[in-house]
Amino acid sequence: MKKIEAVIKPFKLEDVKDALAEAGITGMTVSDVKGYGRQQGHSELYRGAEYVVDFLAKTKIELIVNDDEVQNVIKLISDSAKTGKIGDGKIFVSPIEQVVRIRTGETGSEAV
What angle do CA 15, 86, 37 make, to 5 degrees? Predict the structure, then answer.
């Protein structure tokens, strides 16, 4: 099993969720996060004063999938989150050693 974490633009969340749901991928955790990469933030004007926004609003999606689903999920997220502009985000894949469903005690793939 693998954990897939995707940091995307917030307005692309529904597109990603719909693409994953159509493919039968269920269950995800979504968090509102802030950060920056190559964008390095940007300047904005507020009441005539310029200030720098260092951390940009992003959305982080986390899901656990079986090894054979990883490449498909990466493609689905990439295709549905892409705008072609800087700041589209990143996808991280990590190994998962164990999963336990608290309610039933199921482990492994059955717990996902």
Answer: 105
pLDDT tens per residue across all 112 residues of the chain: 999 999 999 999 999 999 999 999 988 999 999 887 776 666 666 677 766 667 788 999 999 999 999 999 999 999 999 999 888 999 999 999 999 999 999 998 888 8
Asked whether the beta carbons of 1 and 109 are under 8 A apart, the reply is: yes
Phi, psi of 28 (to 5 degrees): -155, 160
Cα–Cα distance, 76 to 78 (Å, whole number) = 6
Helix (H, G, I), strand (E, B) or coil at 48: coil
Please give the model's pTM, rounded to 2 decimal places: 0.84
CA angle 40, 45, 47 (to 5 degrees): 150
